[in-house]
């Protein structure tokens, strides 16, 4: 919304048009990844004459869509705004750079270089060789924040990990007596659904699954291109397979509803035992093509997130999803979130803070009420890690903060 608020940029400046290109780039957020969702605007005589956003993975790039609507005469004397430098390689699509040749384009404004080593600045060099004036770095922070999952994947060869929760002023993620209920307000929930469509997968712990039976779908977004994220359940001890008939029905109705893909992570030894019991419920899940069961090796605290990360990179998940896994949103519960924080296994944290107190103990991060696997010792003020606050916004009655390490 901040970017959409055009008042913040002087009309017809490069920042003004780039902010519009960034908003355009968000159109296909849910379908473009793992390709970065890029926006391209073509402006002539201070008027927008065409625009494009990256299509579904493997489909056309932003520039190709924007250019396809125009003749060379239209392009002559125009300025092209593009959030990522035009590509120069042959991938699933031809190189966008070819589009810029011999069209009389006056200027190209780019927010960020492409971190993909097959491009990495080549686009910019080629544009300059064509004698086109180039401006770079316009709204680079905003664009790189938007494309952070793509940048992390390119740089570190692993998926982007985001953590997300809603809490009260006293840090409760749920009510001690009744378990899950809405903590955050309507605007925060809308934002959550928007995040769920931006990220490839949602990960929750089995405790949250069996307490809340959450749907984990995108409901509040009526986007023509919306894509429900992959649902991942961390269930090391196979609690799902101990569910009674009523719980099984509830799962089938909500979290395990047909039409979305689900992954269950379980310790390999537990899986072997469950299989040997000829558990019918497990058999039906194994045979269901919407499910993938990923066996994990024995996991030792404090390094359990490492084995999860390794499995995220496996070919098995890529084949099941039909594309590489670029990002994961960890939504809870408190134990799982605490472990990801403790093990520094995250790129970004989204926290929604609602203006009330609950006074509970059970559902706090690092709660001393939690014992056993995934519980951590108390910390001390003098040695504790402090995080950097990147965003603070009011969302209705709530406050959203976003933190990085
Ligand atoms: C652009 N414009 O809109 C996007 C770009 O396999 P391909 O051909 O789809 O290429 C994917 C790579 O292209 C991707 O890794 C990134 O480097 C770049 N993405 N480039 O010029 C776009 N989405
Ligand atoms: Zn391209």
UniProtKB/TrEMBL annotation:
PROSITE patterns for this protein: CYT_DCMP_DEAMINASES_2 (PS51747)
Keyword NADP: yes
Keywords (A to Z) from UniProt: Hydrolase, Multifunctional enzyme, NADP, Oxidoreductase
Name of the protein this chain belongs to: Riboflavin biosynthesis protein RibD
Family to which the UniProt record says this protein belongs: In the C-terminal section; belongs to the HTP reductase family. In the N-terminal section; belongs to the cytidine and deoxycytidylate deaminase family.
GO biological process: riboflavin biosynthetic process
Sequence ranges assigned to domain CMP/dCMP-type deaminase in this UniProt record: 13-127
Organism: Fluviispira multicolorata
GO MF annotations, alphabetized: 5-amino-6-(5-phosphoribosylamino)uracil reductase activity; diaminohydroxyphosphoribosylaminopyrimidine deaminase activity
Function: Converts 2,5-diamino-6-(ribosylamino)-4(3h)-pyrimidinone 5'-phosphate into 5-amino-6-(ribosylamino)-2,4(1h,3h)-pyrimidinedione 5'-phosphate.
Family matches, as Gene3D superfamilies: Cytidine Deaminase, domain 2 (3.40.140.10), Dihydrofolate Reductase, subunit A (3.40.430.10)
EC nos: 1.1.1.193, 3.5.4.26
Pathway as given in its UniProt record: Cofactor biosynthesis; riboflavin biosynthesis; 5-amino-6-(D-ribitylamino)uracil from GTP: step 2/4; Cofactor biosynthesis; riboflavin biosynthesis; 5-amino-6-(D-ribitylamino)uracil from GTP: step 3/4
SUPFAM superfamilies given in the database record: Cytidine deaminase-like, Dihydrofolate reductase-like
